[in-house]
Amino acid sequence: MATKSKSRGGFAEMIKTIVYALLLAGVIRTLFFQPFWIPSGSMKPTLLIGDFLFVNKMAYGYSKHSCPFSMCPFIEGRWLARQPERGDVVVFKHPTNGTDYIKRLIGLPGDTVQMIDGILYVNGEELPQVPEGEFIEPNLPQGPMKNLPRCANRPVEVGGECIKAEAIETLPGGRQHAVLDIDVGFGDTTPVFTVPEGEYFFMGDNRDNSMDSRFPRSAGGVGTVPFENLVGRADRVIFSSAGSSMLAFWTWRPDRFFVGID
């Protein structure tokens, strides 16, 4: 009998340990850091497909979207709100379908934003771009979806060099980041967008391969994004793998481990 009681007691302790661990993980994920895998090439060269990072959820305070599956209906608006800064790389919920997106914050409430021939204008001022050579990557399947990258020098044989022009762009306030140019795309010249109060304008650094605030939600873009939809700020890449699985250690990118995000 004692053996059975001890067995039941051990099983109960194991269940309690698992429950406590899950609760702790849920608290950490909700209040502090959320793991995020980069699924697409829209933020190259800043973020590559297969980069793994933790999103800082303390950066902007908390909304209903801070909980897993946006299950914080008791939060109205935003608690402990802090305004994001232009140039932040932000994870947010798509305003229509709730999918997690990651883009760079370009336009603040009240700003005007426009692209003309691939050059970005904010509040009527042209943002300087300084050529930075070429971004070269192998033309090979990337990530779990195994998509081939888009190349400016296409057609490119599988395994060949996929090349895109790279430049350093300076935002109002002085923050700098790299951007890529592939070809003349629909988003290279746009109307003037005025960012509504309480919303933000986001763009991908891989300008010709990003469905972002330049495009309406009806066309697959995100439009402007309400403050409530911001999940957190991406500060640092923790791990990176070029393969379809993180277990494929021969595809790991050690040079990207613990790299800060500009």
Rounded mean pLDDT is 88
Question: How would you sum up the global shape?
Answer: globular
Distance between the termini: 63 Å
Low-confidence stretches: 19-31
Note the beta-strand portion: 25-35%
Task: List the keywords.
four-stranded antiparallel β-sheet, 1 helix, 15 strands, 262 residues, mainly beta
Can you put this structure into words, describing what you see?
The protein has 262 residues and is mostly beta strands. The protein has 1 helix and 15 strands, in the order αβββββββββββββββ. It is 11% helix and 32% strand. Strand 5 and strand 6 form a beta hairpin.
Summarize the entry for a quick read.
The protein is mostly beta strands. It contains one helix and 15 strands; from the N terminus they run αβββββββββββββββ.
Give the SSE layout.
Layout lengths: L1 H30 L1 E5 L13 E6 L32 E5 L6 E8 L4 E5 L2 E4 L2 E2 L2 E10 L22 E10 L5 E6 L11 E2 L4 E5 L21 E2 L3 E11 L18 E2 L2
